[in-house]
């Protein structure tokens, strides 16, 4: 059991954030063929990982480590370009920690807990009192300071960030049962039949992949776990269930520390782990009053700020009018006699004359040819859409050419386009 201490200032000053960003995210299909899930583009100019990192920075945490593994080059390049402003002379640090077979037995990170265990020496060198473990692949705004205070006040061994989700959707999360004081009494990792809440059987309490530990206690647990040949060396599968059985694990509800502007009415958190969920979360931003406010200057989402010219709209004649309605259009986009509706255009998209784009997410540096019609698509980075291509009007044809989801979203990559020409 960890003890308490006297404190008056922000606990974030004594904490280090450790972001687990090594996952592929295979349910995003071809979007993660060339990049890890945390490096996938989101919201017009950011990457998914920017949300966890921005939350840490805005919470006052100035020591951050990011553990990478799967196809990490795109992610590492983004981190180097966008997150290199931390200064050691201000007691700040930002470490990128690729799986580098540091354990002596030439193995990669065996699990999420092992990804921390292999870097104990680096964490110790900074001397943090608390470690905030974060998943690098969720979209949300959260102040971690209340969770840190909750951890200390409750004298917890681990505090787990939790959120209510529909019970059937909880099968891809860690699910827990709690008592009246939010002490975790059972923790199940990705159960096939998740337990519902008392009196609310269709809702489950799911882990957000956010954990707070006192460092000395965590290191003891990691060393114990590393010595267990039967362990999967995973937080959700091994570390947390062990503490639930043998210590004190507390659930911290997201609503207590969710950051919301005056325009945000719900506690917004999304796992954009499927193509459908990714499309929906991006398209959500085109609403008049979106559930997630990216314009909240009191809680900015930091990222690599590219130097680009403004977006440009040209031509104004019937059938050839450069326009965008209920859409987000990023820098260096040229909408040249094209119509864009309820869509999101990332940096450097060029839409040629007479093309129509509707309910679509277009990643950076895409060129859309004349007379093309795209509806309900996600177009990967750098794709050239041929002149006259129509997607989103014939479901059976779309399914033979592109990756079409159950909800009718088509994912388009350059390889798929190239096969059309072949």
UniProtKB/TrEMBL annotation:
All copies of domain Glucose-1-phosphate adenylyltransferase/Bifunctional protein GlmU-like C-terminal hexapeptide, residue ranges: 309-412
Keyword field: ATP-binding, Carbohydrate metabolism, Glycogen biosynthesis, Glycogen metabolism, Nucleotide-binding, Nucleotidyltransferase, Transferase
Residues flagged as site, Could play a key role in the communication between the regulatory and the substrate sites: 69, 108
Listed InterPro entries: ADP-Glc_PPase, ADP_Glu_pyroP_CS, GlgC_bac, GlmU/GlgC-like_hexapep, NTP_transferase_dom
Keyword Cell membrane: no
Pfam family membership, one: Hexapep_GlmU
CDD domains, alphabetized: ADP_Glucose_PP, LbH_G1P_AT_C
Entry EC number(s): 2.7.7.27
EC category: transferase
Annotated residues for binding of alpha-D-glucose 1-phosphate: 109, 174, 189-190, 207
Reactions performed catalytically: alpha-D-glucose 1-phosphate + ATP + H(+) = ADP-alpha-D-glucose + diphosphate
Pathway: Glycan biosynthesis; glycogen biosynthesis
Residue ranges of domain Nucleotidyl transferase in the record: 18-286
Position of the signal peptide: none
GO MF annotations, alphabetized: ATP binding; glucose-1-phosphate adenylyltransferase activity
GO BP annotations listed: glycogen biosynthetic process
Chain's role: Involved in the biosynthesis of ADP-glucose, a building block required for the elongation reactions to produce glycogen. Catalyzes the reaction between ATP and alpha-D-glucose 1-phosphate (G1P) to produce pyrophosphate and ADP-Glc.
Known partners and oligomeric status: Homotetramer.
NCBIfam families named in the record: glgC (TIGR02091), PRK00725.1 (NF001947), PRK00844.1 (NF002023)
Family membership: Belongs to the bacterial/plant glucose-1-phosphate adenylyltransferase family.
PANTHER family: GLUCOSE-1-PHOSPHATE ADENYLYLTRANSFERASE, GLUCOSE-1-PHOSPHATE ADENYLYLTRANSFERASE-RELATED
Protein's name according to its UniProt entry: Glucose-1-phosphate adenylyltransferase
Organism whose genome encodes this protein: Elioraea tepida
Organism ancestry: Bacteria, Pseudomonadati, Pseudomonadota, Alphaproteobacteria, Acetobacterales
Protein's gene: glgC
């Amino acid at each position: 059991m960890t003890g308490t201490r006297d404190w008056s200032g922000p606990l974030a000053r004594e904490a280090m954030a450790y972001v687990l960003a090594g996952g592929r995210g295979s349910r995003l299909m071809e979007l993660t063929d060339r990049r890890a899930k945390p490096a996938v583009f989101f919201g017009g100019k950011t990457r998914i990982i920017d949300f966890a990192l921005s939350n840490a920075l805005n919470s006052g945490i100035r020591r951050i480590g990011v553990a990478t593994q799967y196809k990490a080059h795109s992610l590492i390049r983004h981190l180097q370009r966008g997150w290199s402003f931390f200064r050691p002379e201000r007691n700040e640090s930002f470490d990128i920690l690729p799986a580098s077979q540091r354990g002596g037995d030439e193995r990669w990170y065996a699990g999420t807990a092992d990804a921390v265990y292999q870097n104990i020496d680096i964490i110790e060198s900074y001397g943090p009192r608390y470690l905030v473990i974060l998943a690098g692949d969720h979209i949300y705004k959260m102040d971690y300071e209340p969770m840190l205070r909750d951890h200390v006040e409750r004298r917890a061994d681990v505090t787990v960030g939790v959120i209510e989700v529909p019970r059937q959707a909880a099968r891809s999360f860690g699910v827990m049962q709690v008592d009246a004081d939010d002490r975790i009494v059972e923790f199940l990792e990705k159960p096939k039949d998740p337990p519902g809440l008392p009196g609310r059987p269709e809702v489950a309490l799911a882990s957000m992949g956010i954990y707070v530990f006192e460092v000395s206690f965590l290191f003891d647990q990691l060393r114990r776990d590393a010595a267990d040949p039967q362990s999967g060396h995973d937080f959700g599968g091994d570390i947390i269930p062990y503490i639930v059985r043998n210590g004190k694990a507390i659930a911290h509800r997201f609503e207590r520390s969710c950051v919301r502007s005056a325009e945000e009415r719900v506690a917004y958190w999304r796992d954009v782990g499927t193509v459908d969920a990714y499309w929906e979360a991006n398209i959500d931003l085109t609403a008049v009053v979106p559930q997630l406010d990216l314009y909240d200057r009191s809680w900015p989402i930091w990222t690599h700020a590219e130097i680009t010219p403004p977006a440009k709209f040209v031509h104004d004649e019937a059938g050839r009018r450069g326009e965008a309605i209920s859409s987000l259009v990023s820098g260096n986009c040229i909408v040249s006699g094209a119509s864009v509706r309820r869509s999101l255009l990332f940096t450097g998209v060029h839409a040629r004359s007479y093309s129509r784009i509707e309910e679509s997410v277009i990643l950076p540096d895409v060129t859309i040819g004349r007379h093309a019609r795209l509806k309900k698509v996600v177009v990967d980075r750098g794709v050239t859409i041929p002149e006259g291509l129509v997607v989103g009007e014939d479901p059976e044809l779309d399914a033979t050419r592109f990756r079409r989801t159950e909800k009718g979203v088509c994912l388009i990559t350059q390889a798929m386009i190239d096969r059309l020409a072949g």
